[in-house]
Amino acid sequence: MQTEMAQRVHETEPEAPPPVTADIFLRHWASQTPDAQALSDGPNRAALGLGPSRHLSFAVANQIVDRIAGNLAAHGLKPGDVLALQLPNICEATLIMAAAWRAGLVPCTLPLLWRLSEIHAAFGQVEPAAVVCMGRSLVSDNAETMREAAAQHVTVRFVFGLGSGLPDGVTPIDHWLEEAPSFIGGSLPGAAKAIKANTPAVMTWSTTPAGTFAVPRSHGELIDIGKVFVGRLGLSGRDTLLNTYPLATITAIGGQLVPWLLTGASLTLHQPFDFAIFVDQLDAQKVTYTAVPAPVIAALAEDQHFHAQAQGLKRIGCVWPVSYRAGKATGLSDVPVPLYDIHNFSELALMVRQRDDAEDPMRLPLGKQISPSGEDEPTVYLETRVRGSVKNAATELSVLKGELLVRGATTPHGPFTSAGIRAQTALRPDAHGYLDTQILCSVDETVTGHFRCEPNAGLIQHGGVAVAASELDALYADFPDLLDAAALSIDCPVLGDRIAAAVVPRPDVAPSLDDLKAFLGDRKVASYKLPDQLVVVNEIPRQPDGQVMRDQILAQL
């Protein structure tokens, strides 16, 4: 176990290095506070078959990152190459991402729930040079899936694997992450010089009604996002952050990983989510900041954990989905620490606001959002606007409805070439520099300067994951027993959003839900895309451009 948090902080904290690239900060803290605890795993890691929990100082973490980066370079990976990562929220994921930055590579994170169908589509867009995955995870045989995907994409030269049960063709790399002083691997010729503030640093994935595409961000944009969180939440090297999200979204990377690097705080990880273990970690690790969904915060308040295990918390982030139904923003009035609402707009932008108890957290401000002032000049980290048309609501009030547009220092500015054609199309700014999030929202004249995000029938939230309804339409319609099909989102008061497959069967065929699921399973589709029920309809009504008229189908049910 590393030294206690109180021992890691000097009376005068070392200043962070100039914000040039994300890689600089780990080297800096390894020099300034080498023995301070940098990273630690959750206590249930061993029970998940991932080996014992790790607790690493900044000096040891930096040595391991050097070793990983050297080995990546020794395998012929060059600055600018894309490194796909599908890893749980453990120390190795953080170390490998930092090592990719050190080697000048662009890590592209893949959600753990993705299977061969989704991975194949992703590889077609970003063309990775190498992949890092686990031998197995709680959801699938990751290494076998990655090996199969790599066989279909000639750009993938290496599949690197962690853990046991690696199949032939997957290179084991556990020894790269051992806590040994010796440097194993190659040098990094030119890598440091190749990394600039505008160099692509990471790619995550946005899912909109139009489909899923990669969203690249530069080192400078990542650092700007981290600075917003540090400034808004008042984070410093005295803090211990508890990250409950895998590094597959900008919420986790920009809101947890980068603030950790900027401040030299301690980062504790949690994977997968377990409420009892989460509460124990709050106490055992003396956590001062974490970010979780609203229901978790409500459960902490209801069970009075804020007055027991969570008493060390100085602030807590509430991570909201893009849209919500009325009544789901309740139960947070008894939280005795400052609460910060975090909104992720299709991976294109993050908004962070301190909660005002008198306001609805889903009513968001239009216009310029200024980053907290410090030594630097205040900057517009995010600017929002709504583009659409004014309609008369039933109340005869004028309501502006349309799509949310964003721009600012923390939004992606390109280059987008490594993310593929779909990203280059989806991320093309308008004449004023705004990006279209494809999020439906409305602006009511009774609330000046604010907007609300609204549910979109073309985007289905299932199992906590967003999926384009049009993608499900195509998957279901390929089932040989069907002439046509469409996916519908149905609200269940007990189980939340459910997927119904509305199907038009072939003559004299009686399709079953089990048969449809088996068909999708054979195609190795992610489990959250499987329907919960099947309903037979006479036809799938469509607009002249082919878009499914889902409201008309729902009206028949």
Please state the average pLDDT score: 86
Architecture of the domain at 459-556, according to CATH?
2-Layer Sandwich
- For this structure, what is the CATH homologous superfamily of the domain at 459-556? ANL, C-terminal domain
**Category from helices, strands and their pairing:** alpha/beta
Q: Within the CATH hierarchy, at the fold level, what is the topology of the domain at 459-556?
A: GMP Synthetase, Chain A, domain 3
What's the shape? globular
- Class of the domain at 459-556 in CATH? Alpha Beta
Give me some keywords for this one:
557 residues, alpha/beta, Luciferase, domain 3, GMP Synthetase, Chain A, domain 3, 8-stranded mixed beta sheet, 6-stranded antiparallel beta sheet, 15 helices, 27% helix, 27% strand, globular, disordered N terminus
Describe what is shown at a glance.
With 557 residues, this protein is an alpha/beta fold. Helix content is 27%, strand content 27%. α2 (23-32) packs across α3, α3 (58-74) crosses α4 (91-102) and α8 (219-233) crosses α9 (250-263).
Written account of the structure:
The chain is an alpha/beta fold and 557 residues long. Among the domains are: 365-453, Luciferase, domain 3 (Roll); 459-556, GMP Synthetase, Chain A, domain 3. Helices cover 27% and strands 27% of the residues. The chain is built from 15 helices and 26 strands. The strands form 6 sheets. An 8-stranded mixed beta sheet has the order 2-1-11-10-12-13-14-15. Strands 16-21-20-19-18-17 form a 6-stranded antiparallel beta sheet, covered by helices on one side. Strands 4-3-5-6-7 form a 5-stranded parallel beta sheet, with helices on both faces.
